[in-house]
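TICKET: design request
STATUS: open
ATTACHED STRUCTURE:
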């Protein structure tokens, strides 16, 4: 993992985090919460079909998050990473309040560029505010070919991004249809 000196060395070349100067820790860069959240606007979710969302603005006086409800947020910071594997982690201060910022998607990819979508859930009703520290990004050296860079369905995202898993099912259906026609 890169420490503070390693981060300072790599930031101009292989790592970019907007407004990082005052957010540099001993072995991480702190990231902050944007001013909007998304929630799914449907009684159930279907992995094969896109689910509608609605945007909630976080006012300066804060927004109360409800327990057992998924909120999609985003970091204010736009990042780019080449030759390293970034890992987004929550901060202890929020964890001790029962707030998680990612369910399973903490690792980034070599070549990812964009803001980070946060999958926020909380154990207790909790008020959050725009621009509060929300997480830390740690960087691990990539072992192997760094020429293969991420250019997937989340590349370049700026807003909190809902699941795009349905695109995988559409791709599979197209491939199955092509395969079926090829065997006739």
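STATUS: resolved
RESOLUTION: sequence designed for all positions
ATTACHED SEQUENCE:
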């Amino acid at each position: 993992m890169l420490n503070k000196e390693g981060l300072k060395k790599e930031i101009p070349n292989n790592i970019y985090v907007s407004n990082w100067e005052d957010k540099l820790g001993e072995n991480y860069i702190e990231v902050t919460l944007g001013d909007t959240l998304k929630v799914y606007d449907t009684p159930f979710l279907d992995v094969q079909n896109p689910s509608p969302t609605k945007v909630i603005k976080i006012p300066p006086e804060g927004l109360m998050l409800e327990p057992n409800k998924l909120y999609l947020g985003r970091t204010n910071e736009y990042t780019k990473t080449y030759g390293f594997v970034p890992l987004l982690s929550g901060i202890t201060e929020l964890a001790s309040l029962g707030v998680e910022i990612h369910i399973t998607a903490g690792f980034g990819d070599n070549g990812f560029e964009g803001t980070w979508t946060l999958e926020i859930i909380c154990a207790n009703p909790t008020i959050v505010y725009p621009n509060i520290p929300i997480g830390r990004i740690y960087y691990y050296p990539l072992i192997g070919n760094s020429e293969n860079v991420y250019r997937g369905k989340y590349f370049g995202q700026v807003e909190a991004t809902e699941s795009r898993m349905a695109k995988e099912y559409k791709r599979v259906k197209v491939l199955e249809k092509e395969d079926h026609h090829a065997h006739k």
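CLOSING REMARK: The chain has a mean pLDDT of 87. The chain is about 15% helix and 30% strand.
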